[in-house]
Every structure is written in C-alpha cells, then in structure tokens.
Amino acid sequence: MTATHESAAQSARTDASPQPAPGATPPRAPLFARAAAELVGTAALVAVVVGSGIQATELTQDVGVQLLANSLATVFGLGVLITLLGPVSGAHFNPAVTLAEWWTARRGGAGVTLGEAAVYVPAQIVGAIAGAVLADAMFAEPLVKWSTQDRSAGHLLLGEVVATAGLILLIFGLARTDRLRFAPVAVASYIGAAYWFTSSTSFANPAVTIGRAFTDTFAGIAPGSLAGFIGVQIVGAVVGLALVALVFVPARTTAEQPAA
C-alpha cells in the first residue's frame, strides 16, 4: 500500500469515529479543577487589586492617580484571568455571579448546581483572603492587619447596589445573546469604568470584599463595613437578574405571534 493509500485509509477511519455534535456542550472539567481555578483566579484578582493599591500609594500621594493606577491594573488583570480560567470554571471569581448562575439554572438550564455552588463560594472566599495576604507579603506589609477604612455610608452602599446590578446584567445579558466570548473585555472594561462612576469604587463581589478586609492599605475595607457591603451586593445581584429578565425577553417566532 502506498503512503497516499495509507493516509486515505487513516483519514477514513478518523472520519468514521464518533464526533461531537455541532454546538454540543464540551465536557466539563472535574469539580476539583474548577474549584481550584476559582480559588487561584480570585486570589490573583485580589492580589492585583491590593498590590496595585499599595504600589500606587508608594509612588504618589495624588489620590486620583492612585485610583487610576489601581483601576488600570484591575482591568488588565481581570481580563487576563477571565481569558485564562474561563474555559475551566467560567471564571466567576465572585459568589454573587455563582449564586446568580445557580438561580437561573435551577430548573435544568446550563450552569452550576447548588452542590457545585457550595464548592465554588468557599473556594472564592479562601482565594480572596489568600490573595490579600500574598499582596501584603510582596510589599512587606503585615500579613494580616484588619483594615481601618470605614465604608458604611449610605451613598457607598447605593454605589455597590448599582455596581453589582450592572455586573450581573452585563454577564447574563451576554449569555442570553450568545456573546460570552466577549466577557474578558466586556467585564474587565465594566469594572474599570465602575471604579470611577460608582461612589464605592465597585467592589461588586462578596469574596473580594472579605479578602480586602484583611489588609489595612489603599484597597481595604473595615470589617465593620462587611455586612452592609455584602448585603447590598446580594440586593444588587437580585436587581441585576430582574433587569436581565425584563430586557432580554426571548423573541417569539412567527407562529407564536398573536393573530391580527
């Protein structure tokens, strides 16, 4: 048999093997791998947020420049992390996103189950704390020092509702319109913008909020402010899901249109 015939025969055998259906959902990574991705991704995100905040305060006393440096580092870091870990776990890095996904998938749709969410959320919280400790270690700060930055004012809580609702609307709006491929750029861009247009500088993430309580630096939040921030973030997630249901209504086919 010639090389050409052998190649043709091999190709025929390959073509005859079972192939996934077009559009089929690819196999999911094992749960431990997804949990690890959520832990590592959230740790890296908090390390970026806290570390860039420390670096900025060491380089300049201008608060505006500090916030600019902090927000730019977060945009770039978050975009990279979503691109890298999104194919593994969905790159939630955020209990609000995980719980919102569970809620939308609870009747059999695509998304995490309640059991998977129960693994994701602790992994995200542990990762956030580890990321804050790591950032402090890199800049020779005390590894754990509770933040003294009080963020309990009402206007800051309102900012968190807006920031979290917008994030949920964006992510699930992209999913409803089959454009999740744009998530790395879209989500990172939104968070970068929300640093500036919300009074709270857009934490929008219960796990990150907890992690940032462990560092008494530019990006910190006092432990006494945690309950209020996390509470309004949950409210924001509910508002975001309500907006998704209101705005992204499935289009009806011609057969479903009411008769004239």
What is the end-to-end distance?
A: 69 Å
Helix content: 55-70%
Please trace the helix and strand order, writing H or E for each element: HHHHHHHHH
State Rg. 22 Å
E-strand count: 0
Poorly predicted regions:
6-26
Strand content: under 5%
How many H/I helical runs? 9
The biggest sheet amounts to:
none
In short:
67% of the residues lie in helices and 0% in strands.
Describe the structure.
By secondary structure, the chain is mostly helical. The chain is built from nine helices and no strands. Helix 3 packs antiparallel against helix 7 and helix 6 (154-176) packs antiparallel against helix 7 (183-197). Mean pLDDT is 89; it is low at 6-26.
Helix and strand arrangement:
Elements: H1 3-16, H2 31-59, H3 63-89, H4 95-105, H5 114-138, H6 154-176, H7 183-197, H8 206-212, H9 226-247
Helix pairs in contact: 2-3, 2-5, 2-8, 3-7, 4-5, 4-6, 5-8, 6-7, 6-9
